[in-house]
What we know:
Layout: E1 5-9, E2 15-19, E3 26-27, E4 34-37, E5 44-45, E6 48-52
Antiparallel strand pairs: 1-2, 1-6, 3-4, 4-5
Amino acid sequence: MNGLFYRVKCKCGNEQVLFSHASREVKCAKCQKILSHPTGGKAVIDGEIIEELG
């Protein structure tokens, strides 16, 4: 497997599970802030990584 899943906490307090190699922007389900930016490889995550889910 080439990627991991992370539990990420947004500044608004919402927690979501994101894929480390997401190919699209991922927005917070609560406040719509962008939490993940694609780069063609590992995504840039703009939230606090709480847990690595494997």
